[in-house]
Design goal:
The protein is α+β, with helices and mostly antiparallel strands. The protein has helices at residues 80-83, 114-122, 128-135, 151-160, 163-166, 168-173; strands at residues 7-11, 20-23, 26-35, 38-43, 48-52, 57-61, 91-101, 104-111, 140-147. The chain has 2 domains: 7-61, SH3 type barrels (Roll); 82-173. It has 6 helices and 9 strands. The strands form 3 sheets. A 4-stranded antiparallel beta sheet has the order 2-3-4-5, with no helix packed on it. The protein has a 3-stranded antiparallel beta sheet with strand order 8-7-9. Strands 1-6 form a two-stranded antiparallel sheet. The structure holds zinc ion.
């Protein structure tokens, strides 16, 4: 049975020792040994060494030239902090106080894990101001949440200084 092998011609200097090459269509092992300026291959059929003239191009099977398949790069669609826990939802939120505290009636906050932060706030933790409210017996509630928003957005809201316009409870009173 004759196996047709697709080959490409390459100079001996580019072939690794031990690689299977085809010389005149015959499979040989490239021994690469210089013998009086001549490179040798080991003919697999006759099991004998063959000597090649310097500059002879060796026929190398295509597959030996094939590149290793590249490993697929992991693509992170989220920031690492959220990638580790996909249930985490970041966002900005607005808290309305049942009574004003030192003229303040709202609190705007940002959290990278809203659920965890709300659980803290329920215990009166996670914000010094809310802690003080709790100590003064002032109730508060989360009235609005902007899921996916960042600290930049939190800053923008705070700079507007009109939280009551964002607050559904205060808007209802008007
Ligand atoms: Zn309000």
């Amino acid at each position: 049975m004759v196996l047709k092998v697709k080959t490409t011609k390459r100079p001996a200097s580019q072939v690794k020792r031990g690689a299977v090459v085809y010389v005149g269509g015959r499979p040989s092992v490239f021994t690469g040994v210089l013998h009086e300026g001549i490179v040798s291959v080991h003919d697999k059929l006759t099991n004998k060494a063959r000597y090649l003239e310097p500059g002879t191009l060796l026929e190398v099977p295509y597959k030996t030239r094939k590149r290793k398949p590249r490993k697929a790069k992991k693509i992170l669609l989220w920031k690492p902090s959220t990638a580790t826990n996909p249930r985490k939802v970041q966002g900005v939120y607005l808290i309305h106080f049942k009574q004003p505290y030192k003229h303040a009636l709202h609190y705007i906050g940002y959290a990278d894990d809203l659920a965890a932060r709300f659980a803290e706030h329920a215990k009166g933790k996670g914000s010094r101001l809310l802690e003080v409210l709790k100590m003064n017996g002032i109730d508060f509630e989360i009235v609005r949440v902007w899921k996916g928003k960042t600290r930049t957005f939190e800053r923008q809201l705070k700079n507007r200084k009109n939280a009551s316009k964002l607050c559904p409870i205060c808007q209802r009173k008007h």
